[in-house]
């Protein structure tokens, strides 16, 4: 392929994804690159407020942005997990809490010992299996339940990991923070509307042209234009793989409302007849939205359901978002890399949108070409991107598929459809393995931990038929003491924490 040294980078689209990309490239490559970012009102941004997962801490740390500065600049709050209400059945609730649950013994995961104790308790007391008991051994869950927060790194008494946290924050404020950061480090910002894209003889992008006739050329183009996909789709024609047969929701409304107390350190996802509603608490407001299938709920019904289930007074009119769940067949094609919504969309059920942006940026920096773009760079980038999208896709499908809900619309309702549908073989293997042996295996670089998979599968109603035989090497007396000690340490730790709101005020 072309041996041109990559020097001039053109990022099309600002927003969170564009400015995250600009900031990291400017930080790492310094004066090696000339970075230009093009912003336009016609591209627009989603900007509904964000809930993240823990890796964003690493991204900010690499940029040198302190947590306290980030919290202040973005009106952020802390996030210890996601509470799921009405997902398995109406009236039930569980949490995907970040961090570990319990403490492993040797090579055997904690949940096997917990299952062994549950089985023994059932035999002795004739009691039924109690899945909710599992969260007694999660520090994150217990802190979230009591609206507490403190960044404890470790709990020496039980040799357990400490609090694992992410954030809720205002996406537009974060983009502003990164814009200032990037410009201070030499990134050139241009505002204008792109009207055409010029290609070279081999089909790569040569330049983009603005409405006023100005032309910007580059060696590598990064498409952060959101659903518009101005470069990767409209200019280069890269196809999109549709996953709506597995994830049928295709619409959303988003609206902010007044903040209410207490300031909860978790995201809430509440299932309804045709999808689910999110709640993201920030310092200055609460972000809300409803995700739904347009085949099972009209726009007006969705809007009214959203407004009827707000904690505070709405601060704006609900804004409609239409999407197609899936991924770009090639996220890197020729000299164009799609990052953000232009590369694909997975609904925000597990708060992965910004993580996909972050991982794509990191992947690009690791595979960044020196003496021209090579096919090997592109192929490996696309292979990793596909694997990551599919793994997250499976985790989201899991929530929908494992339900026992009485679906509105009967056999034609959303939940019945999701329960009866064929699922990817990769997900079926995980479900079958856990159902029969309580075992969870994950790929080394897979985003979601074993603890995450276990919590969702237990929360969605799977009771494993068996557990690991090594649990029998521990006597029932020792097992009872072991579990009791973990519960006591967690309870003592949470009791000593300040409230989430009190901690935020000190930041």
Automatic annotation (TrEMBL):
Gene3D superfamilies: FAD/NAD(P)-binding domain (3.50.50.60). Keywords: FAD, Flavoprotein, Nucleotide-binding. FAD binds at residues 341, 350. 7-chloro-L-tryptophan binds at residue 79. It holds the Pfam family Trp_halogenase. The active site is at residue 79. GO terms for molecular function: monooxygenase activity; nucleotide binding. InterPro entries: FAD/NAD-bd_sf (IPR036188), Flavin-dep_Halogenase_NPB (IPR050816), Flavin_halogenase (IPR006905), Trp_halogen (IPR033856). PANTHER family: FAD-BINDING PROTEIN, FLAVIN-DEPENDENT TRYPTOPHAN HALOGENASE. This is Tryptophan 7-halogenase. It comes from Shewanella livingstonensis. The lineage of its organism: Bacteria, Pseudomonadati, Pseudomonadota, Gammaproteobacteria, Alteromonadales.
